[in-house]
Amino acid sequence: MIRAKITPKKFFPNNLIAWKSTLRSAEKSLDLDNRDMLDSSVAGDTKFAASKRGSFFQEAPRLGNQFSGDLFLQSYLKRVLPYEVLQEIFPDLQHFGHRVATDIYSMGRECELQPPKLEQFDAWGKRVDNIQTCQGWRQLHDVSAEEGLISIPYERKYGQWSRIYQAAKLFMFSPSSGLYSCPLAMTDGAAKSIELSNMTEKLSVLKDAYSHLTSRDPKKFWTSGQWMTERKGGSDVANGTETIAVPQDDDTYRLYGYKWFSSATDADMTLTLGRVQNPDGSTVPGTKGITMFYMQTHNEDGKLNNIEVQRLKNKLGTRQLPTAELLLHGSQAYKMSDEGRGVPCISDMLTITRFHNSIVAAGVMRRIMSLAQDYCLRRSVFGKLLVEHPLHMQTLAKIEVETRAAFLLSMEVARLLGKQDCNEASDVETQLLRLLTPITKLYTAKQAMQVTSEGLESFGGQGYIEDTGLPGLMRDAQVLWLFVSISLKKKMIPILLTC
Ligand SMILES: Cc1cc2nc3c(=O)[nH]c(=O)nc-3n(C[C@H](O)[C@H](O)[C@H](O)COP(=O)(O)OP(=O)(O)OC[C@H]3O[C@@H](n4cnc5c(N)ncnc54)[C@H](O)[C@@H]3O)c2cc1C
After folding, report:
1. Would the pLDDT of 265 be above 80?
2. The organism sits in which domain of life (predicted)?
């Protein structure tokens, strides 16, 4: 077979001619248009007068009460919770469902529009490393405390059902929260780690931190970071951790290292990993050399705890969230796990942050669905409303099923976690929680990307327009698969295949 050499001219000969003639006629018509405009403006009848812009304006999709409008959420709670518990928490959920569609939504939007900034030096050249956040971000801190978004499962007012109550609130909160859901996930993870740590009795700083993390008082409430990822590894922290912890005479440590991805850099405290330095200056390599540390981000004088913020990351999404590269140069820290037991100790924390990740994924799916469902009642194409087009509704139905599945799976993790919190989980339930948490995290994260992408399509061109607030949902969903370590993806696949 003889193959002709393909050149642009050979391949598109007609198109080139057509393209040139289109250009020529466009130039001509431009001349004509200019002439018309001159002529008509002289005549006092401009072609683009305000009266000729048209009278049709598409109604925007409306965000209603995210509790009373979500019958699936309500029916789940009715099915799972004892009657008295639901009766008691119902008014709060109803009220919160309204807030996430009104004032909390506005705070979240402000965070999207005014992302954090880093002021590294003051006017006189002094290093300050001040992360400036908008008012909405700071208000969300107070809202999180007042609404008990972290405290609910630790108060245990409703025993094992407290986690489901918290999960229902987080589910509604996260897509309105301007990514404040991220520091909350790490805060909850830190509270759980401290609760389970065998160092808590010994160290009053840990007890004190716990009372801040689980407080409902905005003035007392703290958030926590989790600074694990270093340049060499995020999923493989066992080999990636280069931070060195130098023991001090007073039982504290000084940390030296470079934390490559640190979200919620404006947090009050953090949990982090390092390798304790032996008297001869050596450290133990691999998993067995890793210890978990607790540290506060600021000293008592309000200055940073020997932390330099190198820069804020320029990210695809989650721009509301201050994610930074941090240099630790002698930061004071306390050992939180036994020496070399840092990796097993993180697993408690990861269970919580992965649970949050799944709830956030289910929440963003629900949000795009509830907006898409509202929009199909407002938008007409080809002479009828979208809701009257079977193919459109078939597409929405498909992603509604995915959304419900993600919700049920995530709530099952919440249910098991609630039992574990209260020491009421059987051995099987404990094992199931271990298995289900990373699978749910991975699966719902992948679903969230697909559902938000498909969901955006249902708004046509408007789904791509920033000031509708819609594209951010997809950008932010993109991060969910890699938050909180991704190596499990590879570890879980063989397990899933044998199920
Ligand atoms: C917006 C944002 C915020 C973040 N915030 C924080 C934070 O607050 N704290 C923090 O500690 N980290 C944070 N991270 C970092 C995040 O946790 C890591 O990026 C993530 O764990 C992946 O690590 P890595 O970047 O080193 O990628 P790598 O681990 O280098 O992964 C690269 C590739 O290798 C694959 N891979 C990984 N493990 C295996 C395996 N076992 N088998 C086969 N393939 C594998 C992965 O699937 C991936 O495709 C944040 C990241 C982002 C994007």
Report:
1. yes
2. Eukaryota
For a pocket test of ligand 1, which of 180, 486, 489 has the largest count of ligand atoms closer than 8 A to its C-beta?
A: 486
Total domains in the fold of the chain: 3
Ligand 1 centroid to Cα of residue 229, in Å, is 8
Q: Identify the residues whose C-beta falls under 6 Å from ligand 1.
A: 225-229, 233-236, 261-263, 315, 318, 323, 479, 482-483, 485-487, 489-490
CA atoms within 13 A on the CB side of 466: 3
pLDDT of res. 236:
87
pLDDT digits (tens, 9 = 90+) for 303-312: 999 999 999 9
Do residue 425 and residue 477 come from a single domain? yes
Q: Is residue 9 part of a domain?
A: no
Looking at ligand 1, which residue's alpha carbon is closest to its atom 22?
A: 234
d(CA 441, ligand 1 centre) in Å: 14
- pTM of the entire structure? 0.88
% residues pLDDT > 70 (the chain): 87
Ligand 1 geometric centre to CA of 485 (Å): 5
The torsion angles phi and psi of 204, rounded to 5 degrees, stand at -70, -25
Query: And the tokens for 125?
Result: 């050249």
> How far apart, in whole angstroms, are the C-alpha atoms of residue 485 and residue 488?
7
Placement of tokens 């006189």 in the chain: 124
Give the Cα separation of 171 and 414 in Å (integer): 11
Q: Looking at the structure, do residues 354 and 476 belong to the same domain, yes or no?
A: yes
Assess whether 403 and 471 both reside in one domain: yes
Each residue of 313-363: pLDDT tens digit? Answer: 999 999 999 999 999 999 999 999 999 999 888 888 889 999 999 999 999
Same domain, yes or no, for 449 and 376?
A: yes
For ligand 1, the distance from its centroid to the CA atom of residue 199, given in whole angstroms, is 29
Q: What is the distance between the alpha carbons of residues 263 and 227, in angstroms, rounded to a whole number? A: 8
